[in-house]
Amino acid sequence: MAEPKDTAETLKGHRILLLHPHLVAPGGAIGYTLHLAEQLLAQGARVAILTMRVDRSMFDLPAGLEMISLNGPLTSSLYYWLLLPFWQIRISRAITAWQPEVLFPQVFPANWWGWLHKRRCPGLKLAWMCQEPSAFIHSPAWIRALRPWWKSLLAQVLRPILSRVDVFLARNCDRVIANSRFTASELERVYGCASDAIAYPGIDFSAFASEGWQKERVLITVARLTKFKRIDFLLEVFREVLKVHPDLRYHIVGQGEEELQLRELARKMGLESRVIFHGAVTDPVLAELNRKSSLFLHGSIGEPFGMAPLEAIACGTPVVAHQSGGPQEFVTEECGRLIASLVVEDWAREISAYLDFLFSHPDFPDRVRECARRFDWPRSLWPAVEVIAVLCAGNGQHLENSTGKKWRSGA
Fold first, then answer.
1. Are 15 and 107 part of one and the same domain?
2. Best CA proximity match to 174, nearest among 388, 21, 410
3. Domain residue limits at 299
């Protein structure tokens, strides 16, 4: 994608502060933040990331990026929430000291950091990158699944208050960007406002290059091992698929609070010799596992986007996913199948038939891989870069005044 000259000229020399809760493990919104920082720096902007904690050994930070770490607790800890006013004061002081022209928060609670600071400094421009309306505020199912139990109880008690505060504070945005059309629809539902742009998460397309496909009779899932990734459902599906394709193996990559239960479930199902739990792996190892796998299984329902299945597609591995959420925007007949059913037997039947097709078409991975090309990071992030450039140019008045859009009445 060509980079408009006026956008690059507009960004040059402007100060943009990205807000992220913590940088301690690669992946997800952290990758989005770092790639966006890299792209803004390439346009001549001055860029910093403000965070509670950073583990520099885990990341290759872009040259020229400034890191501002408060050396505080993880935002998931009780210590953070008990001292919330203290940390917000420190965050606001750090923002003021760096003197940004544009704030760019993403996931909760970094969006609150930005919104609360903007209430004190209304002249500061703010673009919110909405990866999803915070599940820990707006999703009862996520709240019930929180561990340990006291976090779930506390979140349930506070949910009515937090949801109202969240929707109210969101009105401080000058621009709102969604990471998918599905997330844009969730913005409308939860906050009553339309997004100004959609900037999909991306991939480093060149990093998944392959000089030849050596697909094995292997299925793979890459996910955080939580209830919402529905790995238990996928294990049941795999057991059924084995009745048709008894020589398959199943790689499960990732960590999470459900790992021990899932290992025990696989044992009870008699799948120990067929299911391999890899835990956390490095990016090169993950790419190699994806390249060798014949099919990626994605069990989530209503996933905001889905980075793991997109990376599999970039490795020439087609995806089977539920027909909901972000995967609907990139899983096509050319690179996978979407299943509307939630019935194990329906998934097993569809997967078994699809595997028959894949095993008889060894050239299919080339077609699959091409479906990921449009999500290369520079292409995906450019709408977000343009929104930031508009704010830097001084054209980003408050949403309600400049774009004609209205936040939900009473929000």
1. yes
2. 388
3. 205-374
Q: What is the model's pLDDT at position 404?
A: 41
Q: Does any domain span residue 37? A: yes
Eight-class DSSP state of 376: B
Longest dimension (CA), the chain: 64
- pTM value is 0.85
pLDDT digit string, tens, across residues 332-363:
999 999 999 999 999 999 999 999 999 999 88
- Give 98-150 pLDDT, tens digit per residue: 999 999 999 999 999 999 999 999 999 999 999 988 876 887 776 777 777 77
Nearest CA among 371, 384, 378 for reference residue 330: 371
Rounded CA-CA distance 21/352 in Å is 42
CA 385, CA 39: separation in Å to the nearest integer? 8
Structure tokens at 181: 């059309």
Give strand ranges (E) for 107-147. Answer: 125-130
Residue bearing tokens 């913590």: 22
Contact 79, 87 (CB under 8 A): no
Domain count within the chain: 2
**pLDDT the model gives residue 406:** 52
Residues 193 and 243 in one domain: no
Tell me whether residue 409 is in a domain.
Answer: no
Residues 258 and 366 in one domain: yes
Clarify whether residues 171 and 229 are in a common domain.
no
Buried b (16+ CB within 10 A) or exposed e, 126-157: bbbbbbbbbbbbbbeebbeebeeeebeeebee
Q: Provide mean pLDDT across the span 156-177.
A: 91
Domain contains 410: no
Same domain, 178 and 272: no
Residue 176's CATH number = 3.40.50.2000
Residues 304, 387 within the same domain: no
Beta carbons within 10 angstroms of residue 321's beta carbon: 24
R_g over Cα of the chain: 22
Checking if the pLDDT of 5 tops 60, the result is: no
